[in-house]
């Protein structure tokens, strides 16, 4: 029984020593630290964890952490993609004819500066179609 008590005491000291490291990492524990803690807890209970299982546990934890990081990076990239798509739509709309909203603009009217496609410009050759449609003329 004294052996178990000293093992538990040893485990408590080890965990107390690890606390400052965890605090520096904002509550995060590395895979190696977690595997070591599990190994120490199981050893103190008289259960041996073989090297292969320790290695598998550490690999699993590392892969889970990498998965979380990859998912966060993917989410960030998806948000960037959405923003870029919206900007592309806005840019495309800026080059669309303001009358038919179909063709690209290729005529600028003077003196008002409105832009139209050649087809819509030819249809309303005397007046600016936009000023006419809005009732400004």
TrEMBL record:
Species this chain originates from: Sesamum angolense
InterPro entries named among the record's database cross-references: Sacsin_chaperone_reg, Znf_RING, Znf_RING/FYVE/PHD
Pfam families noted in UniProt: zf-C3HC4_3
Record has Zinc as a keyword: yes
Origin: domain of life: Eukaryota
Domain RING-type: 97-128
A Gene Ontology molecular function term of the record: Hsp70 protein binding
Matches recorded under Gene3D superfamilies: Zinc/RING finger domain, C3HC4 (zinc finger)
Keywords, comma-separated and alphabetical: Metal-binding, Zinc, Zinc-finger
Protein name per its UniProtKB record: RING-type domain-containing protein
